[in-house]
């Protein structure tokens, strides 16, 4: 047992729930609602695992306190953008504690939509529209531990549980045929998925990363996802979830130079026409109007898409 070695370790506080309100003089208010996970790493923590030595252990309780402390003391704009808040927390940890060489902060946001009445946005009332959830994970690392000399940050951001459905303009035909293939060609089908999309910005110094337009990238990723799903003619011509995924990611990479790669996970939530021929009713192929959603199993299409390596 005692000859075992630690291959990696990280510890901290998960599910730190914090709500930050920004109150403007004219009565307009903003809200950010977060669940934060903060994890510290460093070789000197090994003795807390192997020798029962807590001397260098920054209590997870203290890490939780730090999240609230920073939510109050940072300028509001550094708290309201989750990517910036995550990098601020991680930067604070690696700067304050010499023996912390890397800090990983994940923030899940609870999206509150501002209420609108007669097309006018309400100054301080919000509602939850869908299940779609934005999150981010920032990792800040000392380039030359244990010195504080320089820090690099990697940020991965995304959203999950964006549910979409279209009732036509999707197909799946001309696939591999053998004795195990029973699925007929589907030249026109329903398509439904629950989108998980994430994008990565790698190895930047903190100031460069914090200057990126994270809200714009998030809104653009969502817009491109929906637009490619509903409108991109290539998704219709090539016709598979795989093609739709590639088009979505390609559009995000083309629009946002700061994004290094894009990952999607797209379950193909099957909704098949219900065979009513026993009742003398035509409800298959082009006659389909009544469908049965299939809870399980679903297809599951994933890929990470990036730019081609630049030639030197
Ligand atoms: O878009 C699809 N891609 C597949 O790989 C596949 N496989 C399947 O059964 N249906 C679908 N649909």
Side by side, the strands of the main sheet go: 1-2-3-6-7-8-9-12
Molecular shape: globular
Protein structure class: alpha+beta
Rg: 24 Å
CATH topology assignment of the largest domain: Urate Oxidase
- Along the chain, the helix and strand elements come as EEHHHHEEEEEEHHHHEEEE
**Beta strands, count:** 12
Stretches with pLDDT under 50, minimum 5 residues:
none
Quaternary state, please?
single chain
What is the CATH homologous superfamily assignment of the largest domain? Answer: Urate Oxidase
Name of the top-level CATH class of the largest domain: Alpha Beta
Distance N to C terminus: 49 Å
Bound molecules: uric acid
How would you explain this protein's 3D organization?
- O2 binds at residues 60, 268.
- It is found in: Peroxisome.
- 5-hydroxyisourate binds at residues 60-61, 172, 189, 241-242, 268.
- This protein is α+β, with helices and mostly antiparallel strands and 312 residues long.
- It has two domains: 8-149, Roll (Urate Oxidase); 157-312, Urate Oxidase.
- The protein has helices spanning 46-50, 60-73, 76-80, 82-96, 206-210, 214-231, 233-238, 241-255, and strands spanning 11-23, 29-41, 102-109, 113-117, 120-127, 133-142, 151-166, 191-204, 261-268, 271-273, 291-293, 299-306.
- The strands form three sheets. It has an eight-stranded antiparallel sheet.
- Helix 6 (214-231) packs antiparallel against helix 8.
- Bound molecules: uric acid (URC).
- The site of uric acid has 7 residues, from helix 8.
């Amino acid at each position: 047992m005692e000859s075992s070695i630690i291959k990696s370790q990280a510890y901290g506080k998960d599910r730190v729930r914090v709500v930050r309100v920004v109150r403007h003089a004219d009565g307009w208010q903003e809200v950010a609602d977060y669940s934060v996970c903060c994890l510290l790493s460093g070789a000197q923590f090994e003795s807390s695992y192997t020798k029962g030595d807590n001397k260098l252990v920054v209590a997870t309780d203290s890490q939780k306190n730090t999240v609230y402390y920073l939510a109050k003391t940072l300028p509001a704009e550094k708290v309201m953008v989750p990517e910036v808040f995550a990098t601020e927390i991680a930067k604070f940890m690696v700067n304050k504690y010499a023996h912390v060489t890397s800090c990983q902060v994940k923030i899940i946001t609870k999206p509150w939509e501002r209420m609108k009445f007669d097309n006018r946005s309400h100054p301080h009332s919000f509602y939850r529209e869908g299940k779609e959830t934005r999150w981010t994970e920032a990792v800040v690392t000392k380039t030359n531990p244990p010195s504080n000399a320089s820090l690099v940050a990697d940020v991965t951001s995304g959203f999950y549980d964006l549910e979409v459905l279209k009732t036509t303009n999707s197909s799946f035909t001309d696939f591999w045929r053998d004795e195990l293939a029973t699925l007929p060609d589907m030249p026109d089908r329903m398509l439904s998925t629950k989108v998980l999309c994430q994008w990565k910005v790698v190895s930047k110094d903190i100031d460069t990363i914090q200057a990126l337009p994270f809200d714009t990238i998030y809104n653009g990723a969502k817009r491109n996802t929906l637009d490619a799903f509903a409108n991109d003619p290539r998704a219709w011509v090539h016709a598979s979830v795989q093609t739709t995924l590639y088009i979505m990611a390609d559009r995000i990479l083309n629009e946002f130079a700061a994004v290094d790669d894009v990952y999607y996970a797209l379950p193909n939530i099957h909704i098949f026409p219900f065979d009513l021929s026993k009742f003398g009713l035509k409800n298959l192929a082009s006659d389909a109007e009544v469908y049965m959603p299939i809870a399980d199993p679903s297809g599951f299409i994933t890929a990470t898409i990036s730019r081609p390596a630049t030639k030197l």
